[in-house]
Amino acid sequence: MADKTEVINVTEYAGASDRKGNDCWKLKAVVSWSDYPIEYLEWPRLNGESAFQLGQYRAEFNKGNSFRNKQGSDRDYDYYWNPISMNYVGAAEEQPPGPGSSPPPSNNGGQPSSSRASGVSSTADERRDRSVAISYAKDAWCAGKIERNELFELAGRFHDAMVNGFTEEE
User: Fold this and answer.
1) What percentage of the chain carries pLDDT values higher than 70?
2) pLDDT at res. 169
3) Which residues pair with 25 in a beta bridge?
4) Which of 29, 30, 37, 64 lies deepest, with the highest CB count within 10 Å?
5) How many percent of the chain have pLDDT more than 90?
6) Nearest residue to 64 (alpha-carbon basis) of 11, 20, 141, 4
7) Residue 136 phi/psi, 5° resolution?
8) Distance CA 152, CA 138 (A)
9) What is the rounded CA–CA span in Å between residue 57 and residue 61?
10) Quick one: pLDDT at residue 101?
11) Which residues contact 125 (CB under 8 A, 6 or more apart)?
12) Residue 59: helix, strand or coil by DSSP?
């Protein structure tokens, strides 16, 4: 269960690595709880993904650690917020590009033209599937069935099963 759900506006992105060395997107987004765009959001980067689609996303967040010297605060902007799902809503209102802006995505938003009907999922479908898999794994963690360090491993197994189907061994 998410601690917060809202529509955010992702304005910039850059390729990066998370703490475990996995590829991720470092996102800059306009959110309701801050007067300034936040720059600490990380989102897993799929293999072969060359661009992140800028625009508005309906995002679910878990409340993370408080910023340094902000323990015990009841203000949302004193905490890190970790996205657990992000679903593309649409293009954001036009904003002039600022210094350090990321290049605009390709004409098709960086998404392949294939469809699920052909057996290949689009980037949006892949993100939705990944979000669902993380949600299932998080439910198992909240129920005490797995440890926190097993969360992403289980999410990966859920995602693999969703994309490739279940096998007899599972």
Assistant:
1) 76
2) 57
3) 15, 43
4) 29
5) 21
6) 4
7) -60, -45
8) 9
9) 12
10) 43
11) 116
12) strand
State both tokens at 164.
């490739």
- First-last CA distance in the chain: 26
Q: What is the CA radius of gyration of the chain?
A: 17
pLDDT in tens, 108-124: 343 333 333 334 445 66
Q: So where are the chain's domains?
A: 1-105, 111-170
Of 28, 30, 32, residue with least CA distance to 14: 28
Report how far residue 156's alpha carbon sits from residue 113's, in angstroms, rounded to the nearest whole number: 25
Beta bridge partners of 27: 13, 41
Burial group, residue 93, by CB count within 10 angstroms (0-12, 13-18, 19+):
exposed
In this prediction the pTM is 0.53
- 84 within 8 A of 135, measured Cβ to Cβ: yes
